[in-house]
Amino acid sequence: MALPKMTRSSLSRPNSSVWCVALLSLTLLAPVGLEASTVSNELPNAELRGSATFRYFGLPIYDAKLFTPGGAPFSWSDDFGLQLTYRKNLKQKALVESTLDEMTRQGNSGLTQAQLEQCFQAVSKGDSYLAISEGPNKVGFWRNGRKTCTLSGPGVKNTFMSIFLGDNTRSASFTRQLKGQ
Length: 181
Prior knowledge:
This protein has about 180 residues and is α+β, with helices and mostly antiparallel strands. It has one domain: Chalcone isomerase, CATH 3.50.70. About 35% of the residues lie in helices and about 25% in strands. Strands 1-2-3-4-5-6 form a six-stranded antiparallel sheet, sandwiched between helices. The termini are far apart. The relative contact order is 0.16. It comes from Ruegeria atlantica.
């Protein structure tokens, strides 16, 4: 019994549409992978503690994730990471001004517009910012896995992170869910 002759043209060729979908999937997942590696590199033993979606008048603005050492309950005395993945496009001015407004509303006005403009750029749907505390007086920021800045100063961790994790946030249910409570 003779085996059928296999020629180069009879071998299966990669389907170009399958390759396109595969490459697109990798591209879309890259920021998530970069953020995950940034968290693990900058915050040893970090595990997801909680997640929540922040909404404004019912519209989703961003998805948030809180990373704590070993996934332990949230504590201001420990370092932690907070990742925001935006669901819509926002200009730099909107990010900076809303951050300043929230800090002022909470009585925490230790940061300036110029400092925040160095850290925050405009975001498009799917962009992520990651903030990781380094003690009470330092917070590092990464945008899509690339470091953008470090804010330093007395109590800067509490000043910035209270917007999302403090006792007087815009949404108590968002904060509870983010803290994994």
